[in-house]
Amino acid sequence: MIAQEAQYREWMLAAQAGDAGKYRMLLTALTGHLRSYFRRRLSDHGAAEDAVQETLIAIHTHRATYDPGLPFTAWVHGIARYKLIDEYRRVKRRATVPLDEASDLFSRDETEAAAARRDVSKLLARLPKPKRRLVEQIKLDGSSVAEVAAEHGMSESAVKVNVHRAIRSLNRSVESQSIRPDSLSERNGDADG
Amino acid sequence: MRTDDLITALSEGVEQARPGALHRQAVLGVTAGVMLSAILMLAWLGLRHDFDSAIASFGMWTKLAYTFGLAALALWAMERVGRPGSDARLPLSLLALPVLALAILSAGQMAAPNADRAALVMGHSSDVCAVYIVACSLPVLAVAFWILRRRAPVSLTLAGAVAGLFAGATGAFIYSFHCTEGSAPFILVWYTLGTALSATLGACLGRRLLRW
Questions:
Q1: What is the ipTM of this complex?
Q2: Which contiguous run of DSSP H or E holds residue B208?
């Protein structure tokens, strides 16, 4: 579920009932999403702004086709994507349009960060639970070693050693999937020590 | 025009636009299309000569049930293809059910002892059946496009095909009041062909006529 769904849907229902104030708020909010959506997909900003305006007009003209029983964000995304395909067709630049979902329209530029977060949590899931907790608290949440040591009733050095080992084992499991030259030399160093 | 000015222009004095209005339009349109198609069929081809006795026959009800089932599912799909963010896969995949049911019935009739299989499939009107069905579907096709043009189909070819499917199945339903065939294999081959031709016609027209 997209975070803004409930708010935007409420404004849309008010707009369908003829509430100009809520409708203005809705269009203004959507413009932000649409602008970043089209700028990322169209080469120049002028074309992107035209597509934003085209989409706003299409939303306006077809506002009765939004069925309150369906997600509003999916409806807007359907229209934005249609206008994007229209634009591609007009400039005949690309025959195929990359697949995207409603969340791509409403996530702004966070897509890469989100993918990285998913990778990290997948990796962390390989650690035994107590160690995973320590790594999360210190490396991700930014807690101090002293705080974590106190919370778990461990000495500070024990916490440090555990986190260090956990990170090393994660490094190894990443290396075993994709062996790179620099990681090989690191492993040789380990064997020496 | 600046985007802010556009938003002001669009939102100032915005009028009510409730989905209910679209439903009423669709009901009105479908009713008009079916009546037009029925009048065309009666004036041009005429009711079958033995209608009074045939209305109680199994063959007549096979045709009516099959074409009505296809038309109802197609109408459901049409309701969905006109709305962005909506998915027509469920009604479209359910189309397999009436086809499968008729295929089973056909297999039963073909497997019966002493069945004249060629006659069961070809009947006596196989050369005109599909063409007449497409002809009967044209008024409904026009109305289905009129309905979809008031909506926002995001896949034009699919929307056109669904409109054609609805028109074809409805045209076949109406044509079945003229046609004197009643064997399941005949209906399976020729009624399905007529409906599919209409769907193909709709798919070809969709890209041109449904743009918005």
A1: 0.87
A2: helix B192-209
> Which residues from B are below 8 Å from A when comparing CB atoms?
1, 3, 6-8, 10-19, 21-22, 82-86, 151-152, 154, 212
What digits encode the pLDDT tens for the residues B101-110? 999 999 999 9
**What is the reported pTM?**
0.75
Tell me how far apart the alpha carbons of residues B198 and B212 are, in angstroms, rounded to a whole number: 23
**A-B C-beta contacts closer than 8 Å:** 95
Q: From its phi and psi, is residue A66 left (phi > 0), alpha (psi between -120 and 50) or beta?
A: beta
- Residue in chain A closest to B15 (alpha carbons) equals A18
How many angstroms separate the CA of residue B156 from the nearest CA in chain A? 10
Express each pLDDT in A156-185 by its tens digit: 888 888 888 888 888 777 766 654 444 344
**SS3 category, A94:** coil
B9-38 burial string, b = 16+ CB within 10 Å, else e? ebbeebeebbeeebeeebeebbeebbebbb
Q: Which of A63, A73, A84 to mutate to test binding with chain B, by most B CBs within 10 Å of its CB?
A: A63
- Measured at the CA of B100, the angle between CA B94 and CA B103, to 5 degrees, comes to 155
User: How many CB atoms lie under 10 A from the CB of residue B4?
Assistant: 11
Chain position carrying tokens 């299409």: A58
Q: State the DSSP code for B187.
A: I
